[in-house]
Amino acid sequence: MRTTQKDFPGGHLRSTIGFEILVQDVMTKKVLSILKYDSVMHVAHILSENNISGLPVVDKENHVIGVITQADILSIVGVRKGHTFKDLLKHMLGEPLSERKVGDIVGDIMASPVVTIKADATIAEAAQSMDEKRIRRLPVVDDKNKLIGIISRADILKAVIRNLT
Fold first, then answer.
1. Could you tell me if 149 and 27 are in contact, meaning their C-beta atoms sit under 8 angstroms apart?
2. Contact 106, 129 (CB under 8 A)
3. Could you say which residues of the chain have pLDDT below 70?
4. What distance in Å separates the CA atoms of residue 88 and residue 109, rounded to the nearest whole number?
5. Within 13 A of 42's CA, how many CA atoms are on the CB side?
6. Please, is 12 exposed, middle or buried when counting C-beta atoms within 10 Å of its C-beta (0-12, 13-18, 19+)?
7. Which contacts (CB < 8 Å, 24+ apart) does range 9-18 have?
8. What is the pLDDT of residue 143?
9. What CATH number did the domain enclosing 105 receive?
10. What pLDDT shows up at residue 56?
């Protein structure tokens, strides 16, 4: 289903920009990925060393099967998205936090099934999908569901700013 400008409220001239730019024009093409049998600690190091917040998880044929994020890793120690700073302080002082994920490998804690997008989609479609699913990045796949890139909210914002200036 192709999203059109009329699917978005507003109708301002600037709101057409997202329909003129394709995902393939702004996605990161040299994307890091990991396998579901990689250790969670290995992933934590990759995220930290590369200053990124999430990675696509692929099988041996490079098909996207999930996503793992900093939030997923933090959930192992009981930290989840809904926790406040006060909750974290209490946890550091010994109080337990609820909804702890358990596992040593990526497959145990990754989000799956994963939401993906095709390279020929518009950035408006990508932004809408991210907003609806409350996610920050989308793996970009080809027709065989093989990973060819990744697009983040930051990539979309940069593209919009470039086209407004």
1. yes
2. no
3. 1-15, 77-102
4. 20
5. 13
6. exposed
7. 14/164, 17/160, 17/163, 17/164, 18/122, 18/123, 18/124, 18/127, 18/156, 18/160
8. 95
9. 3.10.580.10
10. 97
Condensed to tens digits (0 to 9), the pLDDT of residues 65-81 reads 999 998 888 877 655 55
How many whole angstroms from its chain centre is CA 140? 10
Which residue range is the domain that position 100 belongs to? Answer: 5-164
Q: For the chain, how many structural domains are there in total?
A: 1
C-alpha to C-alpha distance for 123 and 80, rounded to whole angstroms: 29
- Cα 80 from chain centroid? 16
Total-model pTM: 0.76
| CA separation for the pair 45, 142 (Å, rounded) | 28
One-letter identity of residue 31: V
| 81-112 per-position pLDDT tens digit | 555 556 556 666 666 555 545 678 999 999 99
Q: In Å, how far from its chain's centre is CA 95?
A: 30
The CB density around residue 111, as the number of other CB atoms within 10 Å, is: 16
Quote the tokens at residue 155. 């990539």
> In a 3-state reduction of DSSP, which class is residue 125?
helix
